[in-house]
Design goal:
Blueprint lengths: L3 H16 L4 H14 L9 H18 L17
Helix pairs in contact: 1-2, 1-3, 2-3
Length: about 80
């Protein structure tokens, strides 16, 4: 039987993957790392919320990184004569 934390990880991964339109396996790695950071926490009540905020912030920052494009002068435009 699936325990609460496993279900929370799966649901959180699905939710963030849809929200940020990011591949599920990538989000799963971030979620797993987030939960790992709280492995020794004695109080587990807010771990899912804290991990969600942490992973969402990482995904938000990555979404803001501009895509590298070639400079305009590197693209040759030829106009037919």
């Amino acid at each position: 039987m699936e325990d609460h934390e496993q279900r929370a990880r799966r649901d959180l991964t699905d939710r963030l993957s849809r929200r940020f339109e990011t591949p599920r396996d990538h989000v799963q790695q971030l979620v797993d790392a987030g939960f790992e950071g709280f492995r020794g926490a004695r109080i587990r009540d807010y771990v899912e919320l804290l991990v969600e905020r942490e992973v969402a912030e990482v995904l938000r920052r990555r979404a803001r990184i501009p895509v590298q494009r070639e400079p305009a002068d590197a693209v040759s435009l030829t106009v037919p004569s």
